[in-house]
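Appendix B, Record 12. Input sequence as logged:
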Amino acid sequence: QVQLAEYGGGLVQAGDSLTLSCAASARALSKYSMAWFRQAPGEGREFVGGIVWNDGSTRYAYSVNGRFTISRDWAKFTLYLQMNNLQSEDTAVYYCAATEGYIQTTAEWYLYWGQGTQVTVSS
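Logged structural output:
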């Protein structure tokens, strides 16, 4: 069982940066991959990027590649999403999620979810 809690959302201007955090309750995360998804109003959950907890390998959606960076802190059991050059189309509720095994790009593969944190980018 993995409990996840996101922090760090807010209102920013276009071009700004923001870092989201996701604290995990589990202490045995080596068998999991963790990912960030986002959901804009009226849309489904979109894969943003993911990381294999054990080796740190990452995968990103094309729309954020080069602007967003995912990392994790072993000691703090925390996942991060560094977002640079934010644009209005990045406005969404951002969720972290965990799945066993390798990174998956569709939400149905993920068993564990946080409650989400709102990111709003004004232009």
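The chain has a mean pLDDT of 95.
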